[in-house]
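Work Package 4 report. The design task specified in the project plan requires that, given a folded chain encoded as structure tokens, an amino acid be chosen for each position. We show below one input record used in the internal validation round.
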């Protein structure tokens, strides 16, 4: 069933745009693929950049020639079928789709998964927070905003203020702060596990296997 247009527009209004030099990434990864045609990480970068640029030729190329898992993701994009969120490009597509479909709790979980995979990804943190806000997970949104501010600094000041205000309005009284403390502890554990699992990868760089 198609989502009503007014709901799509309403959801899209809060969809943060992922920053990046997509033209540069597309060119860089294309050059790398000329000498390493089976490099799966380079294919993910190339296809991801093409998707961000709405480059249909790149997506078609990925659907026919990419190494897995990029090929399966590209085919799902072309055929508008379900994308497997088991790689960083597919995870982004699934995250944006669920957000636009107003499945905000699922989008929040996907945003956290992407953040765990890429601990320096500010966009993933923003997506998780906005999804939690829109999904009525007020305490979780505040906890995520606090954790993001701790890691990224003043960039998240506005979201901390916004989520704190909404939390106070939604959960007045001391019981709410006990509940919030539990959420903060849970979030800390989730993010710490993510750093332990993926931190080593991040330290070695995104293209560690391309040399």
């Amino acid at each position: 069933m198609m989502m009503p247009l007014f709901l799509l527009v309403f959801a899209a209004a809060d969809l943060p745009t992922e920053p990046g030099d997509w033209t540069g990434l597309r060119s860089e990864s294309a050059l790398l693929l000329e000498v390493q045609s089976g490099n799966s990480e380079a294919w993910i970068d190339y296809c991801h950049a093409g998707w961000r640029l709405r480059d249909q030729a790149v997506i078609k190329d990925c659907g026919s020639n990419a190494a897995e898992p990029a090929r399966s993701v590209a085919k799902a994009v072309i055929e508008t079928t379900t994308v497997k969120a088991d790689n960083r490009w597919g995870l982004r597509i699934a995250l944006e789709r669920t957000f636009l479909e107003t499945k905000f709790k699922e989008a929040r979980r996907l945003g956290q998964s992407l953040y765990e995979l890429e601990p320096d990804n500010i966009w993933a943190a923003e997506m998780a927070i906005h999804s939690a806000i829109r999904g009525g997970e007020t305490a979780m949104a505040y906890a995520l905003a606090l954790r993001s501010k701790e890691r990224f600094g003043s960039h998240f000041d506005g979201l901390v203020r916004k989520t704190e205000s909404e939390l106070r309005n939604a959960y007045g009284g001391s019981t709410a702060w006990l509940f919030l403390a539990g959420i903060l502890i849970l979030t800390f554990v989730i993010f710490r596990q993510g750093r332990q699992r993926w931190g080593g990868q991040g330290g070695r760089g995104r293209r560690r296997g391309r040399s």
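The radius of gyration is 18 Å. Validation will be extended to a larger panel in the next phase.
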